[in-house]
Amino acid sequence: MQERHVAPTLDDPVLTAVSEGIGGPIGAHARPARWWTPGRVVLVLVTLAFALGMLQKQPCWADDWGDGHERYVKMCYSDVPYLYTGRGFAELLWPYEDDAEVRAKYEVMEYPVGIAYAAWGTAHVVHWLTGGGSVEPLASVDAGRLLEDPEVRREMRGFVVATTLLMFLATLFAAWALVRVHRTRPYDAALFAASPVLVVNALVNWDLLAVGLVAGALLAWSRNRPVLTGVLIGLGAATKLYPLFLLGGVLVICLRRRAWGDAAKACAATAAAWLLLNLPAMATGWAEWKHFWAFNDDRGADLGSLWMVISQAGVPVTAELINNVSLAAFGVWCLVVLAIGLRAPMNPRLAQLGFLVVAGFLLVNKVYSPQYVLWLLPLAVLARPRWRDQLIWQACELFYFASVWWYLDGQLAPGGGNQSVFYWVAIVVRVLGEMFLMAIVIRDVLRPAADPVREIS
């Protein structure tokens, strides 16, 4: 017997109200469209959202990302084009090359290996597709002057296009996976597909690669496949560290179920997948591979974090102090999530626990870049599939998104030359929006009757 899908206009109060303008909620005798399945609807929505995201980056594309003022004022900044020439990809160099001359010319890629591999592979594909010639002449050109070469500039544009396509495919996969996590609630994935924060943040960096792997892990866990769950978490952690935190949710659920075998399989698969993906980098450039860890350990209070507010307010905080306090605070928060998960009347859902752990990490972290909201997005929409709550949270994120670019352009600097209090307000608003959603998810875990999904999973 075919399972009946939950109708969004009957399930969500916001959609119920909106539907009044087009005839009201779906009727009891309505027949589902044969072609417009939930999955296809969601994929169309995510395609439209991604197209809007590309349009939002158009001002920078038109200027080849060359105007520092425009990229901030028009909020179209992306890391992608700058790293093409700034990390050696224009010369098709392996990211973990340990040659002294290469390292003197180019900085080491500061991201985990998954992103480094993706950027390196994309550069090779673009070079082949554009019919690029030998890269040897570029070896004698200073990294800062590479874009003066018309051929390099053309390849950089191709690199942006190819990376955009790769991010689009990762987003499509994420949407496809989210549609299938809850068999009777496929339209919950529309909250991801039509998300305003997805539109504006999709192309800032390579974060959507990890987002797709997290969505895949949620699907694998919903199908009782702990090994595949672990593999996807491991690959995700090798791309952006945060997917590793999903293991905390897995362990809480396994502890409640006394499913020790599933926990062991998931952890072993995570470790194996992470190690396998990291081995090529470790073997070819150990010092370069360690750069990601050293870079994050040494950096101080950075954009978007409460630590930045504290630092700019005049409180002396060193990188070491931030590391120690953040680690301790995150450890305490993990224990709180463990207690919440064990006290819950029903088994919490992995999306709920994963959202709480990752959100807690971001709140105490030393940097909270605007695109990090994407880390939370697939977890948030399944943890609390309600349009009102998602829009309140995302409105706070959009306020911060605009503020951070204006801040970087100096638009928020006060006339007296002091620190920008308005930017501090934007950070606090973002944090409060996140805490609002966290509080609702905690309530849903402890009071399952309030959870829209209302199922043990």
UniProtKB/TrEMBL annotation:
Main location: membrane
Keyword Acetylation annotated: no
Its membrane topology: Multi-pass membrane protein
Swiss-Prot/TrEMBL keywords: Cell membrane, Membrane, Transferase, Transmembrane, Transmembrane helix
Subcellular location(s) of the protein: Cell membrane
Molecular function terms, GO-annotated: hexosyltransferase activity
GO CC field: plasma membrane
Keyword Transmembrane helix: yes
Domain of life: Bacteria
Transmembrane domains' residue ranges: 159-179, 191-221, 227-254, 266-287, 321-341, 353-371, 391-408, 420-442
Family under the similarity heading: Belongs to the glycosyltransferase 87 family.
Name used for this protein in its record: DUF2029 domain-containing protein
Taxon lineage: Bacteria, Bacillati, Actinomycetota, Actinomycetes, Propionibacteriales
